[in-house]
Batch of 2 targets.
Target 1
Amino acid sequence: MATEHILELTGLSKSFGGNRVITALDLAISRGGVTSLVGPNGAGKTTLFDLVTGFLTPDAGRVRLLGRDITGKPPHLVARAGIVRTFQSLRLFSSLTVLENVLLAADSEAGMRSSSERHESARVAMERAGVAGLADVRAADLSFAEQKFVSLARAIAKPAGLMLLDEPASGLDGPSLRRFHAIVRALVDEGRTVLLIEHNLDIVRQISDRVAFLNNGRLLAHGTPDEIFAMEELAALYFGDDAAT
Amino acid sequence: MIPYAESLLIFTSLAVILASSLNLMLGYGGMFSAAHAVFYGIGAYTASLLALHVNSSILLCVPAAMIAGGVAGALLAVPALRVKEEYFVVASLGFQVIASTVFNQWVAVTGGIGGLTGIPPASFMSIQVDSYGGYLVLALLCAAGVLIALKLLVRSEFGRALRALRDDEAALQALGRDPVRLRVATVVIAAMLAAIAGAIYAYFTSFVNPESFSLDESILIMVMVIIGGTGTLTGPVLGAVFITTFPALLSFVQIPSTILGPTQRVVYGAVITLLMIYEPEGLLGFLRRISRVASFSALRRWQPSTSSS
């Protein structure tokens, strides 16, 4: 029987030295839709991404993808299991061209597809992210906004059911934000599930189907954007006490 | 004079193979290795033993040398690459020390310090390679073959992943690539290619001993790659040609024979040091700079005539 949750986190905890960064966190993400992780700086959002994608190993708790336990698996096996992620610092392959960057996402599916199919997949991903015209440009020579969309194209090229996007909209101007919004909604329409970290609450409100609020490594609330943004205590945590008054 | 020039070209071709194969690890994969001479040596000993005791056919000895080199590469890479990347160079140094000890002490197989002598000349079908010219053709063909193979490899999906690994390991992992597996494959391929040079060396000199495959040789190969310019196919070729031929060219300078050796070494060392200080991108970077200056000068000469017309 297929599980309705694509990702289930149960009792997830992580400490660095004596500092507890994630504490007994339970979160279930349904298939399809966009869930935004919000919370003040240091809430543990990126650490949570690292725990899910295998870059960190939890001290306790389990990570399940479509019911399959992937806790503690190395990042490349998590990626092969069906999770693709972007990074806050983008982490493009700077000496490679845009096409090569995107092809690497398609390449990692080698064995399933031929070379021409992988090139086609990369081309489609670049077009969807609006970076097809930059195919032969070295990643190091791109503007920040261009790099953001190449990072997104790389994630699109990998046919993973769950996409983890770490601050994908930060630093983008108005038109770029609208473009980003359209791309993400199109991905959801085709059945992908998106979990994103975002500080721009306007974007979160517009793009999200669900919002999860983290503070000090604990999940404080999980609900629709209207439900979450109606909670004054969360606004106080996010913006400081003055915001709630 | 001609045999000397032919011999120099043969050794230069072997150096090209060694530097280019190490460049796959160092320049494209970002792995510093102080053990490349081990693979060179294992190729030489494998080919020598087969030529002495079984058959001196290139079709037998070279592939066998490559397999032995590849196995040695895996022996180094599989355990060493599971630790942090920067420890690989230390692990490779240890591997070089162990291998040198084995070359020296396993007398029954390697002949110890005295080495293996009387290695029969290479043969191909019914043709026996028994002249300097023949070995020069063989060495040049092998060097060309290795360079073509490396060019194809670097342009392939494997090469793309290797260059990406050098840029950002975490990002590559996030796309589903296992960096350890990629690095092990790279070391194995580089070791197999280095072993080809070993086999040709053994045939040509008809004698192998541990001195040719010491830590000094490993460092010299690394210097060839760095001097030439890492991460390109041309750089290590330039480095290999420079390191192999420059000492020979210095021997034509008219200086008293009593101080010839030390003078050669001082000049040689000084040139390498100055090159690294003033041109960290190596000989390839130096040539590119000259090319840019030449293009700029040509443009300046061209502009006045166009503006006056």
Target 2
Amino acid sequence: MKSLRVLVVVPCYNEQRSVAAVVNDIHWVKTRFGLSLDTLVVNDCSTDNTMAVVRTLDCLHLDLPVNLGIGGCMQAGYKYAYRKGYDIAVQIDGDGQHPAEGLIKLLRPLFDDQADVVIGSRFLERQGFQSSFVRRIGIRYFRWLNQLLIRKTVHDSTSGFRAFNRKTIEIVNRYYPDEYPEPEAIVQFGLHKLRLLEVPVLMEERQGGTSSIGWIQSVYYLFKVTLGTLFVYIRLRKI
Amino acid sequence: MQSLPITIQLFSIVGTLIFMAFIARLIVRGKLREEYSFVWIVCAIILLVFSVWRDGLTQISRLLGVFYPPSLIFLMAIFAIICFLVHLSVVNSKLQHSIKELTHEIAILKKEVTDMQAPDNFVVENKKKTSAT
């Protein structure tokens, strides 16, 4: 069971203060549970000293020469996982939102082959950081949209704390949404008939850096993701 | 509508010719790709035709039942501009996709090169691989 090779992808954009703690946390989980796990930090063309910090850490790293946003950044990691033959790829954000203790919860259903995609949800047990009121309304809207399109309920559809098995890695290696990929990817996975599973995890408020979504961009976010989701649906419906 | 005075006709013919020369120069210098210049050349030719054929616009408007000829110009020009803008958006999206793919390739290749240059880093990865299998 533990012979499966895991790649933890840590997307980073200006996270010089938090990335070291994140990588060390992952190492701690790795040694504690004896996992065969590599950490890959993907630096999305940060303008601060993130890259210098990452070089001193005991991890693999990719350095994107152009800023691609979270979707393109994650796809670089997934492509790497695909090419190097990893069995499982996990996303853990570089801002410290996703405590690494949750990692083992995410991996277990994949080790047991109970799911293709495991999503860490902060709403299943309602513990830890629950996000702001406005964001929860947005998340509820995406939940409704996902239910409508793929008839599956994902409570925390904007959660970036997710783990993919090999089958899913092959799919995201080919296509992964660009900006704000999380809700869109759920529809993509649903239409590929992948088994989605949500597990309760704790999340924390970010430790460093700024969110990829500010107040003004929220409306844009809503429209962009709705459009992206609908078009992914139309494109993949025939599969 | 009375026909155009001769001065404005000369003016528009000269202007169109200068525009064509400008497009041609951009192509020769390699600053404009041929596939995008096509639209502009067609544009210039239409302009030239109407500069020479003085009553053209009035006659076509009468044929189509347009009362005020200049509104026909605006209609056609705006339509052409919108078509071209859509075309540019498509080109732009394609470029963005290519840049993303290239960025991924470069990042992965860069990692491979640094792995080869730093032998101890390379050994660490090999060790990880053997311990995993």
